[in-house]
Structure formats: structure tokens, C-alpha cells
From TrEMBL:
This is Solute carrier organic anion transporter family member. It is found in: Cell membrane. The lineage of its organism: Eukaryota, Metazoa, Ecdysozoa, Nematoda, Chromadorea. Belongs to the organo anion transporter (TC 2.A.60) family. GO terms for cellular component: basolateral plasma membrane. It comes from Caenorhabditis latens. Residues 1-19 form the signal peptide. The chain crosses the membrane at residues 45-66, 73-95, 263-282, 303-329, 349-370, 420-440, 460-479, 604-629, 641-663, 693-713. The keyword Ion transport applies. PROSITE patterns: KAZAL_2 (PS51465). It comes from the Eukaryota.
């Protein structure tokens, strides 16, 4: 096998892994936001950190790196990239969200019964004043019982009817998991006795004896009860109960004292992405010209199409890895009642970075030590820029630094004086400005707007979006070569693809739906998104996190606490819990199983526009890249790609996530709070604003790109992107003659 093909395989694999990392970062953003309580504005600025490293380095690396061993430069950059992926996983281990030592003295004091409550002659009022009983007793029932006259007869020994009463949903054979309740079976029997007292005026004996037994069982189980309360307080959901929610507040305060903000995780992410930006300057600006030096120009469209397709396979794999990792909870031990389908699920985002970083080290090292081969042999690879080498022969080797800088300035001026190049670069800047931020926050949009779980979002993006783009890139390379698209014909092809893309994305503005999370916001517009009602005012729901549940009619609530639910019941190993004794709900029961997704049709229609849209976008990649590459002198190709990379990063990838983060945050209705009371991650968005603003911004920017495509078409009349330049054709003839001599036997 020829050495160039080995280099091409290694180079494509590095490109492939770099693309995997790029798309995987997008799949991890929302998990990082939730774990470290970051807003979209903050995460967007964090993602832009790679461009802060890329912009100041790319032009100089492209110019000076092209004068040395380009394979070694590419390998060094790829090694740096693989190390930064490992660094990106480190905040999960440096700032763990694990066990916190807390002061439970106040909670233990409320769990300790008074002498009057332990007395065999306790009155009903004394028994009802015990906080755990108060938390479990519906407000109306509690008030009615407190208004009754106390009976003073001695409390009889309670006759236990059974520790596992039949569950309210009729599944009598399935045992109840009591992880979130303290003697819930006994309180259930007490509630039955209370209803009997209030409805029929029967004696209070049974009620008093059941409550007395409950309180006496607390006398020697304080540590065990606190452990159960802590499990409930650390659960992903919140239900009505002052004692549990006060412990939740204590835990939150303890976390805040240990780690007051998300500044330190942000700094680690930012510095890692900064180094990532420096590392990714090399493969594109040096690798493409290297291939151009070693491959016939007529074959370049096919090679570039193949490389583009291979690189596009990277995002497919990146999103599939993201889908796989998001099935695991970030601590690897998910709490009961939380599944990957929940909008508050935090996937194990760090696993993918560890995997990608480890794998990428091997081909990167191989590129760094890649041998050129014997100069002049048929298998040698031109690792140094042949055009730079020719220029070196005509210049003195001992040039001063000032002379080199003047030469650099003249080269930059030559590149920037090309109208086609400037128009092409401006168009690609607009493309990236529209695409980068959109794709970073698309998983958040799909999850919030259509109710699609994160792991499925990334799978769908790989199946429809990235696959369509890769297929389009390969097809575009084939069409360019087959139809010999040259000059204006190639520019016209790019312009037509931009027009179709704008039309398809304009249609997405009208594809809307109200998911379960969206409906929570819509149901509370009249109260200005204040979820507190008279039925849950005593539940201490202020620190409740989003955990959507629905009643039997499908009406959605922000959390079980806001539905006034006082107990969580889990039947067997079923991860979906029932929340009972809900005072704000007719029927008294809410659950996730009652929440029906009504967005299936809208989801199908949306992704039916994604596949052709991404395919059309991919069709224009190869001709646009060839127009850019052929619009400048051959000796300026690396510099032109470096300048293009700098412009795309400075005006495209750098501001794009920040702009999109601002737009998305502007559509937020309900915010989580951080330790200092500032805004954290957004829980609920305004669905119409989010949909219209995201796609309208994309369409406006792409229309500007379309204008630049028209400009390029106007000036591309004499542009030659397919035919072999005369001097390089002679070089190819010389190389082919060497190969022919190499295979002929000696006479």
C-alpha cells in the first residue's frame, strides 16, 4: 500500500475523532448546565472558549507550520486535543455532588415525641401536633379533627390490620416500596379511622390508638427515621411535608457552604476548551493543503467528498455515544423515581470524554511520528509544502525576523485582495454563525418543545441530521466531479443549495407543539408562573425542582409538592411512582403515567424537514471548499485556510453560542436558583417564543449568506477548480514516471 493512503487513513481517523468530540460536546451541554446550575448564556460563553484559543493561533500556525513537517504539526495538535478531552471530564471528579455532612439536630428535635404524646392518656390534639403526623394529614382533615372535642379515655392497644394495605390503584398483589415513607401503612390506617370519625361520628379510640402507636414507634428509631427523611429530601422529586422539605433546605445550604458557586467547574471547562481550540487549528489548515500536494486535482472532489463523509460520520458517532452515556445517571446510581425520560435527568456526560480522549491518543501519536519516505521514491509523501520549498530556493535562508514578518504581511495582503475569497469566507462565516449555536442548543429545544428524552434526541440528530449532511457531502463531491462544475457553475450550485436550505428552515417556524413541560407553563400564565396555591401553601415547595406529574385527566403539575401530595408510593421495582393524598387534585393521586405525549405527529413532521435540510446543506460543502481553495495562489493555500479559520471562529463559532444562549434565555419563564439566589438553569420556556426566535434568527443569518453566494457567483466566471494547473501537471507527470520506473524490472 502506498504511503499516502496510510497517511490519508490516519488523517481521516483523526478528523473523525475530532468530529466525534465536537458533536459530543453539544450532547453534554445540557447535562453540564443541570449538574453545575449554569444558564444557557453561561454555557454558550463556555463553549465559545475553544475559539478564544483558535483565533489567535490559527493564522500563525497555518503560515509557519506549512514551512515545516506538516504531519508532525498535525500529530502534535491532535495529541493536545485528546488530552483536553480527558481534562473536560475532570470537573465531575474534582467537584463531586456526593454525600454532605449536615447538622440534623433541629430535625431530630422535631422527631422526638413529647412526654404528653407518649402518655397513655394523650388527647387527639396532642397526637395531631406531632410534626410527622401533621405532614401526612390532609389540611382539611387535620382542621376538622382539631375542631373536635377531645376524648380523655385511656388509649387502647391498637389492633394492627396489616402492614401492606391494598394500594389505591388496585394492584393488590404488588408490594409497596416504603423507601420514602415512615410507617406509611400505619398512617394510611389512621386516615381511614379519621374519615370514619368525621363521616360517621364514631369514637376516637381507633384513631388515637393508631396515632399513639405511630408516635411510640418513633421513640427509639430516631436515627433510622432521619435516614429515611434524608432519602426523601435527596430524592429528585418533592412532596408536601415541612419536615422533609426543611431537611432538603439544610442539605442545600450545606452544599452551598462547601461549594458556593459554579465558578470553579466553569474555569476548568473554559481552560480545557481553550486548549482544545489551539489543538484543532492544525488538521484543517495544514492537512488539506498536504493532501492537495499529493493527489491529482481531478481526483480532489472525490477525495474531499470522501473525507467530508468520513468526518461527518464523526458527529453521528458522537451523538450515538451521547445517547448511550445519557442512559446512565451522572453518579451511576440513579435515585428511585427518576428515569432517563425525565426532564431533570442528568446523564453521565463525563464517560464520553474519557472514551474519546483515550482513543484519540493512538492515531495522533502515529501521525506525529509519520515517516516521509525516501525522497523521490514512488511511495514518498510530500510532507513539506512544495510551493513553500520552491520559494525557499529563491530566497536567502538567513532572513531576519523583520523580513519574515514583511513576507507574512505581503502574503496576507495577496489573499485578502481576492474578491472570490472574501465573498466565500463571508458566506461560510454566516453559515457557521447560524449553524453552530443552533446545533448546540437543538437538544434542549427538542427536549423542551417536543418532550423527547435526551438520549433519544441525540439518536435522532445522528440518524436524520448528521447522516443527511454526510450523505449530502459525498453526493456533492460526486456531482462536482461528474458534471465538472467549474467557476460559475459551481458557485451557482452552492447558491441554489443555500436557497433551498433557507426555505426548509423557514418551514420549521410553523411546526409547534405543547409538551408536558410546556403545558405546565401555559397552565399558570394567569398567576405569572407562581405555582403556590392555598392547597399547597403550607408544603414549603419553594425549593422544589421540576418533576412533572399529571392527574388522571392529564393536567400537569410542576411537582408533586405543588399538587399538594403528601406521600410517594412505589410498587415493586416499577420506577414510576404514584403520589397520593394530593389536596390540589381531584381524586388525590398524580403520577407520570398519566402524562400523555401529544407531540408525536409534530415530532415526525419536524424530522421530515431535518433530513432533506441537512442533505441539501451537505451538497454545497465540497464545491464551496474547492472555490475557497482555488481562489488564491497555490503557495497561499495554507494561509488562506488559516485566515478563513480565524474569520469563521472570530465572527462565527465564537459569538454564535453566546447569541443563541441569549435568545434562549430570553424565552425562559421559570428559573432554578443557585446558592447565592442568582439564576441557575432554566426549567420552563415559552414554547412559541423559543420556536420562532430560534428559527427566525437562523433564517435571517442564512439569507445574508445567500447574498454572499450571489456575490461569489458574479465574480467566479474565470475561476478554475477542476483542471490541473500547468506547473503542477508537470510535477504529477514526473511523479508518475518515477512510479513507472519503480515497477519496471532491471534489464
Amino acid at each position: 500500500m502506498e504511503r499516502i493512503y496510510i497517511f490519508l487513513a490516519l488523517f481521516s481517523f483523526v478528523f473523525f475523532l475530532e468530529a466525534i468530540g465536537g458533536s459530543y460536546i453539544n450532547s453534554a451541554v445540557q447535562n453540564i448546565e443541570r449538574q453545575f446550575q449554569m444558564s444557557s448564556r453561561t454555557s454558550g460563553f463556555m463553549i465559545s472558549a475553544s475559539d478564544f484559543g483558535y483565533i489567535p493561533c490559527v493564522v500563525f500556525i497555518a503560515h509557519f507550520g506549512s514551512k515545516g513537517n506538516r504531519a508532525r504539526w498535525i500529530g502534535a495538535g491532535a495529541i493536545l486535543v485528546s488530552i483536553t478531552y480527558l481534562m473536560l471530564a475532570s470537573p465531575n471528579f474534582l467537584f463531586p455532588q456526593g454525600h454532605h455532612d449536615i447538622n440534623t439536630t433541629a430535625v431530630a428535635a422535631q422527631l422526638k415525641p413529647t412526654a404528653g404524646q407518649l402518655s397513655p392518656n394523650s388527647t387527639l390534639r396532642e397526637l395531631l401536633s406531632y410534626q410527622l403526623i401533621r405532614d401526612r394529614m390532609p389540611h382539611d382533615t387535620y382542621t376538622s379533627l382539631m375542631n373536635l372535642e377531645d376524648e380523655t379515655t385511656p388509649i387502647e392497644k391498637y389492633n394492627i390490620t396489616g402492614k401492606n394495605p391494598n394500594p389505591t390503584n388496585g394492584i393488590a398483589a404488588v408490594p409497596i416500596n416504603n423507601a420514602y415513607t415512615i410507617d406509611g401503612w400505619l398512617i394510611d390506617e389512621a386516615l381511614i379511622a379519621a374519615n370514619d370519625v368525621l363521616a360517621n361520628g364514631t369514637s376516637q379510640n381507633t384513631l388515637r390508638s393508631s396515632l399513639s402507636l405511630f408516635i411510640n414507634r418513633r421513640a427509639n428509631t430516631s436515627d433510622k427515621d432521619i435516614k429515611k427523611l434524608r432519602i426523601s429530601a435527596a430524592a429528585p422529586f418533592t412532596f408536601c411535608g415541612k419536615l422533609t422539605n426543611s431537611l432538603r433546605a439544610i442539605i442545600k445550604n450545606s452544599k452551598c457552604e462547601e461549594q458556593s458557586s459554579n465558578v470553579y467547574p466553569f474555569m476548568v471547562f473554559f481552560f480545557s476548551l481553550l486548549l482544545l481550540g489551539i489543538g484543532r487549528t492544525v488538521p484543517w489548515s495544514l492537512g488539506v493543503p498536504l493532501l492537495d500536494d499529493n493527489i491529482k486535482k481531478k481526483s480532489l472532489p472525490a477525495y474531499f467528498g470522501a473525507i467530508s463523509s468520513i468526518r461527518v460520520l464523526g458527529p453521528i458517532c458522537g451523538y450515538m455515544i451521547g445517547s448511550f452515556c445519557n442512559k446512565f445517571y451522572y453518579t451511576l446510581h440513579p435515585p428511585n423515581g427518576l428515569t432517563p425520560a425525565d426532564p431533570t435527568w442528568i446523564g453521565a456526560w463525563w464517560m464520553g470524554f474519557l472514551f474519546i480522549g483515550t482513543i484519540a491518543l493512538f492515531p495522533s501519536t502515529a501521525l506525529f511520528f509519520f515517516p516521509q519516505g525516501k525522497q523521490g521514491s514512488s511511495s514518498s509523501v510530500q510532507l513539506h509544502d512544495v510551493h513553500k520549498e520552491k520559494l525557499k530556493k529563491t530566497e536567502e535562508d538567513d532572513r531576519t525576523l523583520g523580513t519574515k514578518l514583511k513576507d507574512f504581511g505581503r502574503s496576507v495582503k495577496t489573499v485578502l485582495s481576492t474578491k472570490i475569497y472574501l465573498g466565500s469566507v463571508l458566506g461560510r462565516v454566516c453559515d457557521i454563525l447560524a449553524f453552530k449555536g443552533y446545533i448546540v442548543f437543538l437538544p434542549k429545544y427538542l427536549e423542551n418543545h417536543f418532550g423527547i428524552p435526551q438520549y433519544l434526541v441525540h439518536r435522532y440528530m445522528a440518524m436524520f441530521g448528521v447522516f443527511g449532511f454526510g450523505l449530502g457531502a459525498a453526493t456533492g463531491g460526486y456531482i462536482t466531479q461528474k458534471l465538472k462544475l467549474n467557476g460559475r457553475r459551481a458557485a451557482m450550485f452552492v447558491m441554489l443549495m443555500s436557497t433551498v436550505n433557507v426555505c426548509l428552515y423557514s418551514a420549521k417556524i410553523f411546526i409547534g407543539c405543547d409538551s408536558i413541560v410546556n403545558s405546565i407553563g401555559l397552565n399558570n400564565r394567569d398567576t405569572n408562573y407562581n405555582f403556590t396555591r392555598s392547597c399547597n401553601s403550607e408544603c414549603m415547595c419553594e425549593n422544589a425542582r421540576l418533576y412533572p406529574v399529571c392527574d388522571s385527566q392529564g393536567f400537569a403539575y410542576f411537582s408533586p409538592c405543588h399538587a399538594g401530595c403528601r406521600e410517594a408510593k412505589q410498587y415493586g421495582s416499577d420506577p414510576i411512582l404514584d403520589f397520593t393524598s394530593c389536596e390540589c387534585v381531584k381524586g388525590g393521586v398524580v403520577s407520570k403515567k398519566f402524562c400523555e405525549n401529544t407531540c408525536k405527529t409534530s415530532t415526525v413532521v419536524f424530522f421530515l424537514t431535518v433530513l432533506p435540510g441537512s442533505f441539501v446543506a451537505g451538497l454545497g460543502v465540497v464545491p464551496a471548499m474547492l472555490i475557497l481553495l482555488r481562489s488564491v495562489p497555490p503557495e497561499s493555500r495554507s494561509l488562506s485556510l488559516g485566515l478563513q479559520g480565524m474569520a469563521v471562529s472570530l465572527f462565527g463559532t465564537l459569538p454564535s453560542p453566546i447569541i443563541w444562549g441569549l435568545v434562549i434565555d430570553a424565552a425562559c419563564l421559570v428559573w432554578d436558583k443557585t446558592c447565592n439566589g442568582a439564576r441557575g438553569a432554566c426549567s420552563i420556556y415559552h414554547p412559541d417564543r423559543l420556536r420562532v426566535w430560534m428559527h427566525l434568527l437562523y433564517v435571517v443569518i442564512r439569507m445574508i449568506a445567500l447574498i454572499t453566494d450571489i456575490y461569489v457567483w458574479k465574480h467566479a466566471k474565470h475561476l478554475n477548480i477542476m483542471d490541473e494547473p500547468a506547473s503542477e501537471e508537470k510535477d504529477n507527470i514526473r511523479r508518475n514516471s518515477i512510479k513507472m520506473q519503480a515497477v519496471q524490472p532491471d534489464p
